[in-house]
Design goal:
With 538 residues, this protein is of the alpha/beta class. Helix 3 packs across helix 4 and helix 8 runs parallel beside helix 9.
Length: 538
């Protein structure tokens, strides 16, 4: 064993001494001859630009380093007809425009006080650390950051969405962070849109009798902080005591009961929330006593209004959270709704049912538009056989399943067994031909103006914050937009629980009079599905 170690030492070439700096722009020697200016060095990975093409402006007063291989990787993505491809094309055009300021390898000044430089690892004396694949592109980026850290006394930071690359950087003593400009601070918990307060029976009776209940100490609409954490009040969540845990699928958690300060005045009863956790506009409240409970929503008049139980077509709410969701979905004054919850909680079914109700019965909107992001799970959509409609059908099948359930004729005594879907399919086809219903991939929404429509974006957890903003800004006059999704089924490689489009939208839009959010936790698909979610959790 000892001889083997000696052989390794003989065969291993030691890292050579640092060579004197050669004046060749950014070609592998950046920093060694420059006087310290206090600015940190920020080395940016490709995936940061793919999630946010404006990320180059998010590091003010710094030396922003883009390894040359990042440009190569962006080129490989630019032809994709996806949000990632669009982001790649946008940042490539930006870098091309910056060339007018001077050679990128020598650095160009940005408007935020930073300078941007494309870095070429062209140092013959530098070796990638042992144990790392010399061909891997991520390791090239890592080597660039390591070389700069060895050649300068100033701080060097690697910014990447790749957790594996962050781990490798940490092992090698390099500071590495996740890009979190549009990410919720993980010390905050997700906004659920609802709260439960323990009260006396008398307050519930007053609520039902119509006595005005004023929600004092509501949050002021203030700009969100840099991490998108709402309006800067308190800890940005539902509970001022401690962050509420986000439960994995199959693990339900009742909202923690809170206490209120209650004051009776001539104009009604005043409910005062803790200063560190004020009420939010369109937040749903449960007043829970020992024997009864009352459900209400705080509206923009700062009063708690009771909920009226409603149905949409043949769909009625089965639990408290579904009542909250249907109230928001059926209220025309709420123009943007986000529904989050695990599979089987009914979020997509409720959204479609409420949309059809307001189009077919109330004539409030001209059309129901249902869209889903197409996240390939194997072959891309362009290589599937058939025409466009046939290609889209597998991706959109969950939408059609919900439509068939809502529009089905199960109560029709003349409907033959085994053919229960036929009447629903005929109705769906009629609605589509009449222009009252459209089911499309999300790709086709970009660039459009959508007036007087009820728009449902399913699987919205796979949207980036930038994509969520793009979709919402498509809304024309009289349009309502609904995002539905499951935090625990994110397929996008660069998104997580804290950085996806639903989380970002809820944190930025909460406390606005035209927005409401509800998190659903109780599964209603079937007894079997609910039992499996509890007993078969890995």
């Amino acid at each position: 064993m000892a001889s083997r170690k000696q052989d390794k030492k003989k065969n291993k070439s030691p890292r050579k001494q640092k060579a004197p700096r050669v004046e060749n722009g950014g070609r592998g020697h950046y920093g060694s001859e420059q006087p310290p200016d206090g600015k940190p060095f920020v080395v940016v990975d490709t995936n940061v630009f793919l999630i946010d093409p404006s990320a180059y402006l998010k590091f003010p007063d710094s030396h922003l380093i883009i390894p040359l291989i990042v440009i190569e990787e962006l080129d490989s993505f630019k032809r994709e007809l996806t949000a990632i491809g669009k982001a790649a094309r946008e940042i490539i055009r930006t870098l091309d425009d910056l060339r007018s300021k001077g050679p990128l390898t020598e650095g160009v000044s940005l408007e935020n006080g930073a300078d941007l430089r494309v870095f070429i690892l062209e140092d013959p004396d530098y070796e990638i650390p042992p144990g790392l694949d010399h061909i891997a592109k991520d390791n090239y980026i890592l080597a660039c950051a390591l070389l700069i850290s060895e050649r300068t006394a100033q701080s060097v930071r690697l910014v990447t969405k790749d957790a594996d690359l962050r781990i490798k950087a940490d092992v090698l003593g390099l500071e590495a962070i996740d890009y979190s400009q549009d990410q919720l601070d993980r010390n905050h918990h997700l906004y659920s849109g609802q709260r439960v307060f323990a009260v006396e029976d008398s307050l519930v009776d007053d609520f039902f009798s119509g006595t005005p209940l004023m929600a004092d100490r509501t949050a002021d609409p203030r700009p969100a902080d840099e991490n998108g954490n709402g309006n800067g009040n308190g800890n940005g969540g539902d509970n001022g005591k401690a962050p509420r845990r986000i439960m994995p699928p199959g693990k339900e958690e009742e909202p923690e009961e809170e206490t209120l300060q209650i004051f009776k005045e001539k104009d009604g009863i005043h409910l005062e929330a803790p200063a560190e956790n004020p009420f939010q506009i369109n937040q749903y409240i449960t007043l829970k006593s020992d024997s009864r409970s009352g459900l209400g929503r705080i509206r923009d008049d700062h009063k708690l209004h009771s909920l009226i139980e409603r149905a949409a077509l043949n769909i009625s709410p089965r639990n408290r959270e579904q009542r909250f969701a249907m109230d928001a979905l059926l209220d025309p004054e709420i123009e943007l709704v986000t529904l989050a919850g695990m599979a089987g909680t009914g979020k997509t079914l409720l959204a479609i049912a409420c949309g059809l109700e307001q189009i077919l019965e109330e004539k409030r909107y001209r059309r129901l538009l249902v869209a889903r992001p197409v996240i390939p799970m194997g072959r891309d959509i362009g290589f599937l056989p058939g025409e466009l409609g046939e290609k889209l059908r597998p991706w959109m099948q969950p939408i059609y399943d919900n439509l068939e359930f809502i529009l089905g004729a199960d109560d029709d005594p003349g409907n033959q067994e085994g053919d229960k879907r036929a009447p629903a399919q005929g109705t769906i086809q009629y609605l589509m031909q009449s222009g009252l219903l459209a089911v499309e991939p999300l790709t086709y929404i970009r660039g459009r103006s959508i007036p007087e429509q009820y728009v449902i974006v399913d699987e919205a957890q796979n949207l980036s914050p930038h994509e969520a903003k793009t979709i919402i800004t498509r809304a024309g006059e009289g349009t309502k937009i609904v995002f539905t999704g499951d935090f625990f089924q994110i397929d996008h490689p660069y998104l997580n629980l804290y950085s996806n489009g639903i989380t970002f939208t809820a944190q930025r839009m909460r406390n606005e009079s035209i927005f409401a959010h509800v998190t659903l936790t109780k599964g209603e698909r079937s007894r079997l599905a609910e039992l499996a979610s509890h007993l078969m959790e890995g």
